[in-house]
Amino acid sequence: MVAPTQYDPGMTDPAQNSVQTTIFPHVVNHVHPTHTTHVNKHVYTHKHYFPHTDSVVNECYENHVFCGAPVNPCCPPHHRPRPFGF
């Protein structure tokens, strides 16, 4: 006797995401001229400000633990191995 075929819901792996960092070097020329006058004195005060922002990255990790042997040991599990760090 053969039982009718049963279909389980399909499984979709989460999208694999990678980060590629590109460095764009920039050159900023700073020109610091001086001037001296013999009649008037000019005093310049340069105020330097350093704005700062923060960001937060939340990371989530998963562990898959197989407790016992699969029912059909001839078939591989339904997931692809992912590279280390993903």
Largest sheet: none
Termini separation (Å)? Answer: 45 Å
Question: How much beta, percentage-wise?
Answer: under 5%
Q: Cα-atom Rg, whole angstroms?
A: 32 Å
Q: With helices defined by DSSP (H or I, 4 residues minimum), what is the helix count?
A: 0
Helix content: under 10%
Structural class: little secondary structure
Give me the count of strands: 0
The averaged pLDDT comes out at 78
Overall shape:
rod-shaped
Low-confidence stretches: none
Give a structural overview.
The chain has no helix or strand. The chain is low in regular secondary structure and 86 residues long. The radius of gyration is 32 Å and the shape is rod-shaped. It holds the Pfam family Spore-coat_CotD.
